[in-house]
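Title: Request for sanity check on SprT-like domain-containing protein prediction

Description:
We are preparing a figure and want to confirm that the structure record we downloaded matches what your pipeline produces today. Could someone re-run it with the sequence below and paste the raw structure tokens into this thread? We only need the token string, no images.
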Amino acid sequence: YARNFKKCKAQLTASLYKFYNETIFKNKVWWSMLLESNRYGCACTSKTKDEKRTNCYNSVDVCLMHGTERLRDTLVHEMCHAATWLINGQRDGHGRLWQLYARTATLVHPELPTVSRCHTYNITFKYRYECTRCKNSIGRHSKSLDTERFVCALCQGRFVLLPPEGRDGTPVTSRALTPFTRFVKEQYGTTRSARPDSSHADIMRILGEQFSKTRLQ
């Protein structure tokens, strides 16, 4: 799982859910897992006032889950939230019931880190915006911030997009274009316009032949 985490993430989540449900919650937590979500948390719903503990929807943010340990810890944390609703019928937050299930999880699985109220890992973002006035920065997983509409909450300054960062927080340097890549970038539009019925593969084959001729000259 650790080596192929991206490919096995859904399978690992289902396996851990089944394992925790059997060993900690005695198979009393049924759960609709929204793995492909852009957030993580637990939402509990009921159809009527008399029909409580109907559903519990948990989501795990695929952008935040960069490894097996983070997924493991987040999953058991959210299942403790689900248990307070599905077993006890209460939305407890991080209150007494949630703490009870968190302690139970630690007792049943002492090999796990202590289940705590807040995560202890740093969240890395693919994109960061910086205020041009006070240098305050905010992170996003996509280029979703409209810099024309939104301003800095601290000083009302404008945000600018910084160069992309890697998971270690260092800027990602763009690689220099190869001669062939530069040639394709310059000639693709013209070649495509001259041959509108040709496929992308045909255009690339033609450009490859043209590039080879220029190298021989």
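Thanks, this matches our download. The beta strands are 32-37, 41-45, 55-61, 127-131, 137-140, 159-161.
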